[in-house]
Amino acid sequence: MSVEAQVNNSEIVFHSGVIDELVISSIGTRIRERFADSPKINRKLFSIFMELTQNIFFYSAERIIESETEKGIGSITILEEGRQFIVRCSNLVEQKYACELEESCATIKGMDKDALRKYKREQRGKPQGERSKGAGIGLIQVAILSENNLEASVKPENKNFSRYSLEVVVGKDTEV
């Protein structure tokens, strides 16, 4: 389900459900069109959106098979509040990866821009883990783009799964 609405003077893009190539492309196009007159914001929001939705697509523990293709399930929201944009995502993760994810988020949260860039270079040189579809640098890139203005939480849902939620704040007048 995708919804675009005006609520409390905040432009909202919201999707909850299957995240597949069509959803990513459709919402990505809306972001590009909506912020065409603000190239810096356009690039930041689009890049953050892509990283977060791809994480849901590849890593969400809640899966569905459609047309013989496995797809992730989760939610993504983008809203505008005053002088900032807020991007939120949420999806289930297997309990066995929850601690690792929390540690990753905590490590990244404690870094400044230069440390993040150095850490990103280091991670590129490391072998990919069994679950990785990239060098594991997506969250680092999101932190760089948002000037490390992110909050992550991993909360147990049951004995097998935890809910991973991430909120990323992008100021309208920030630099990359």
How would you describe this structure to a colleague?
The protein contains 5 helices and 7 strands. The protein is an alpha+beta fold and 176 residues long. The protein has a single domain, classed as Histidine kinase-like ATPase, C-terminal domain (Heat Shock Protein 90, 2-Layer Sandwich), CATH 3.30.565.10. Strands 1, 2, 3, 4, 5, 6 and 7 form a 7-stranded antiparallel sheet that branches. A hairpin with a 4-residue loop joins strand 6 (150-156) and strand 7. Helix 1 runs antiparallel to helix 2, helix 2 (39-59) runs antiparallel to helix 5 (138-145) and helix 4 packs antiparallel against helix 5 (138-145).
- Secondary-structure-derived class: alpha+beta
Please write the CATH class name. Answer: Alpha Beta
Number of strands: 7
Main sheet properties: 7 strands, antiparallel
Give the name of the CATH superfamily. Histidine kinase-like ATPase, C-terminal domain
| Tally of domains | 1
Number of helices: 5
Q: Kindly report the average pLDDT value.
A: 88
Q: What's the Cα radius of gyration?
A: 16 Å
For this structure, the CATH topology is Heat Shock Protein 90
The run of helices and strands is EEHHEEEHHHEE
State the end-to-end CA separation.
Answer: 32 Å
The name of the CATH architecture is 2-Layer Sandwich
Shape: globular
Strand content: 35-45%
Low-pLDDT residue intervals, each spanning 5 or more residues: 3-7
Helix content: 25-40%
Task: Furnish the topology, listing elements before pairings.
Elements: E1 2-7, E2 10-19, H1 21-34, H2 39-59, E3 63-66, E4 69-81, E5 84-94, H3 95-109, H4 113-124, H5 138-145, E6 150-156, E7 161-171
Antiparallel strand pairs: 1-2, 2-4, 3-4, 4-5, 5-7, 6-7
Helix pairs in contact: 1-2, 2-5, 4-5
